[in-house]
# Entry
Amino acid sequence: MAQPIHVIAYDLGTGGNKTSLYKIGETLDIVASSIEDYPMIFVENGGAEQNVEDWWKAICQSTKTVLAESGINPKEIKGLAFSSQAQGAVFVDKQGCALRNPMGALDARSHKQVKRYLHHGLLRIQNINLFKLLKSLRITGGIAATPKDPLWKYHWVKENEPDIFSNMHKFLDIKDYLTLRCTGNYGMTMDSAQLTFLFDTRPGKQGWHKGLCKMFDVDMDHLPPVVQSTDVIGGLTSKAARDMGLEPETSVFGGGVDASLSTIGSGCTGLYDTHIYIGTSGWVSCNVKKRKVDVTNFIASIFNGMPGWFNYVAEQETSGSCLQWVKDHLALEAIDIYLKKHTQDKKDKSSKLFDLLNETVEQTPPGADNLIFTPWLHGNRSPREDALARGMFFNIKMSTGQRQMVRAVLEGVAYHKRWMLEAIEKTFPRQETIRFVGGGAKSDTWCQIMADVTGRNIETIHNCQDIGTAGAAIVCGVGLGVIPSFERAGALVRIDKKFTPRKKYQAIYNKNFEVFKLLYKKNKKLFHKLNQYTEG
# Structure
């Protein structure tokens, strides 16, 4: 291993930015971390936006904080990279300034645009025009089939905000806007490019596809150059360096989206290595070396942060955010009293919340007295894409209390992860050991529930909530040549705990899981009747 270096990695999520300063040597070590929150802006008809200045303020403040806490001289920082939420849409003018609030991953207002471009023709599969589906699958390995895909956000702005659209110079994902703001240079990583479903992912043909752009009425001049995760986009401009407290010309790498870099940060660098992630959103991801798409279950391969590799990934819209919902709406008073009693430091609130969670859930037998929760608080993606699906508690009794409801929420998220995991294993080999990462993995109780519900051995890692920044830091290390390869980087990620499934609860969880899946099938029409977005 080369001489140890320091890099800064960012994980820009839907609720806040985490900045971590890493030392890369024989091990990958966090020197200091800082989190800055920012709001989500929900608008009518399913819109979900954020403000670029909120992002930038959080990035700059947290960077200065980690430098101050660590005592590291900014001159020692050799590079930085971003991991960010995926499938955003940032529209910038020729000066690189955002023309409107970015549309985030949760933005689902583009129903009319999806319907106009895809839901027509005599021959359709899953209500998608057969010709367009087959062409997109052949070229990209997937298709933009949901209102939350960036392609339809592009068309929503085109149709609803023509003045903004006419001034647009480039159409970017979130981290690609941030690297532009840092360097003044355009560069979209391959994972984000693929998620536009305008990018040819076939070996030897990778690039923006003229035919798809024509079919979907996209101006190719709006699309930026495409780069790898380890490519240097440029050096920090003087202004960006001054804002962030760093040195000008510090190398800024391409980075990647959260679902892409999480594989690297979780240490899953081998073939078919699989991890479950619970943050605000969630997913199940399998590490593969070929393109594959499952239209029926809305699972597709996206470029991994490791060149030549793919993540075969199934996404869940609301995962850890279901726990936030519990805090805010189900047991707010009890939780607040507990936190005030046990917490002096605001930064310790998250840890104490999990302590309370563990205490509460452990007092309730597995199965939650056959109470079932569906974690579709803002729709769903896989294995049944439906922006109008919603959460519910099913089978409430006179004896049902808050403890059963809290446990049912954790079990409901685990049921959904099992649903996605089994859909993935219709294509790739079953894995008996799964990595569990993200903030949800900090709860030993949730880890055990995940093992019991899925019937798999569950492993957690040190700093399990930091896989986004860990992945971005490893990208910097490989890009700088300090880490010889991504395969070697997997050894830098240390296993923390292991959980095995308990056979005595297998029957109750199998029964409830089958009911869980039926709840969507039997309520789909009712969800649509209640939640169909109105136009105008």
Remarks:
- DSSP finds 18 helices and 27 strands in the chain.
- The mean pLDDT is 92.
- Residues 170 and 222 are 4 Å apart (CA to CA).
